[in-house]
Structure formats: structure tokens, C-alpha cells
């Protein structure tokens, strides 16, 4: 039970929001709980859902990598809800639980086979909320060796937005169904 | 939510409900989460406001001096009000 009760799905009449909630359900992250909670603030719900889905499932950074980043951040945020959700799209692309755990806890290990670009992106997420002082000019210079500026902005905005929503869901005491 | 998320518990929400509707609490929570994430991200990019507190268009170098180490408030000091 969350501190703010989600609206019943049938109480949500905005077709755009219903569509976005269905899109999240199809992807697997977020499931309908997030959408039904933010639906309590109808003006906020559509842009929040759209940004969450677009930043995760679209863009020019590998979706599997973003899925690992999303779960790494949710674990760091202590958010049981988003940490337990999985993208069906990433799973269909071949992402496994073992690879997710390696990406969260052992991406620097040479034997795990993460590329330098992937390590840099995972380090970006790790450091952003662990030791932001290390995300400095030298860090961005290193990132630019592997990623375009557009991709770095996509990753940075993705990290910032998803971490923020994870802290929000943590504050609500949310847990995914099942 | 930022420095002690465990303190945001059922009792805290009961207190919030004395002053805000559930719609407003969701709006506030999402807004706080959004800002938690984005201000940290923006901080890494080292960009500064285009305008000084007195409304002048300033360079990034000058803006960094004004806002960088010790961010200046746009609110005038009490003595000047």
C-alpha cells in the first residue's frame, strides 16, 4: 500500500494518459502503478509518463544499457518499485538478470566484457549521485571519446529524471505488484 | 526526500494531508524528485545563469564568478528593501 493510493484504472478518463499507461505496461517499466499514482495530479501525469517512457525506450543510446543504468540507479535510490521492474524490450534484445547484476556491481571488471563506452556510461550513473564532484571536465572529456554530445545529454537527462522519479516512488513506499 | 528519505513515512504523509490535497502532494513529490535529479545533473555541466541578479546579460565566466562558488540569491538583502 502506497502512502498515496493509486487511482483505479477505470477512474482515469484521459485517453492520452490511458494510452501512456498501457504503453508502460507493455514495456514493463513503469507498470500501471506509477501512472495511476501520478494520475492524481492530472496536469502532471501525461508529461511525466511521456518523459519517463521516451527517455527510456527511445533515443540514440542502446536500450539494454539504459535498462541496466535504470536498475543501478533504482537500487542506489533504495526504490524497491522501479528496481523490481524489467523492460520486456530489453529482455527481448537479450538482456539477462546476470548481465544486469554485472552492470550494477562489476562493470569495471575486465572479465565481464563491458566496452569502454558502456563502462563510461555506467560510471556516469554511479558517480552522479555517489560522488558528483568526480563528474568534472576531465570526466566529460573521457565520455566524449565514446559518445556524441547528443548521447551524453540523452544519458544525463535519463539518469537525472529516472533517479528523481525513483526517489519519489521510494518516498511513497511503492513496491511493484508480484 | 533528499537527505533523509526514510523520514518521509506514513506519519509524514498524514502531516502533509493536513495542508495539501492528494493532487498537490503528488505534484510536489514529482516536482521535488525532478529537481533532485536535474539539479545534480545540471551542476555537472557547469553552466550559469545568463543574467546577473541586477538583470544584466553576462558572460558564462562572469556568471560563474557571481553564482559559482557561493550562489547569489535574487532576493535583495533586507537592508536594501
Task: Give structural notes.
- The complex is a heterodimer of chains A (178) and B (81).
- Chain A has 10 helices and no strands.
- Chain A is mostly helical.
- In chain A, helix 4 packs parallel to helix 10.
- By secondary structure, chain B is an all-alpha fold.
- In chain B, 52% of the residues lie in helices and 0% in strands.
- The chains are: A mainly alpha (178), B mainly alpha (81).
- At the A-B interface, helix 3, helix 9 and helix 10 of A face helix 2 of B.
Strand-helix topology:
The complex is a heterodimer of chains A (178) and B (81).
Chain A: H1 15-27, H2 32-38, H3 42-57, H4 63-77, H5 80-84, H6 88-92, H7 97-105, H8 116-130, H9 137-143, H10 149-171
Helix pairs in contact in A: 1-2, 1-3, 3-10, 4-7, 4-8, 4-10, 8-10
Chain B: H1 10-19, H2 22-45, H3 60-67
Quick overview:
The complex is a heterodimer of chains A (178) and B (81). Chain A has 10 helices and no strands.
Task: Provide the descriptors you would attach to this structure in a database record.
heterodimer; A: 178 residues; mainly alpha; AhpD-like; 10 helices; elongated; B: mainly alpha; 2 domains
Share of helix among residues of chain B?
A: 40-55%
- The proportion of strand residues of chain A reads under 5%
Distance between the termini of chain A: 13 Å
Number of strands of chain A: 0
Number of helical elements of chain A? 10
Tell me, briefly, the overall form of chain B.
elongated
Structural domain tally of chain A = 1
Number of helices of chain B: 3
Rounded to an integer, what's the Rg of chain A over CA atoms?
16 Å
How many domains of chain B?
A: 2
The secondary structure category of chain B is: mainly alpha
Query: Stretches of chain B where pLDDT falls below 50 for ≥5 residues?
Result: none
**Given the helix and strand composition of chain A, which structural class is it?**
mainly alpha
Task: Please write the string of helix (H) and strand (E) elements of chain A.
Answer: HHHHHHHHHH
Mean pLDDT of chain B: 86
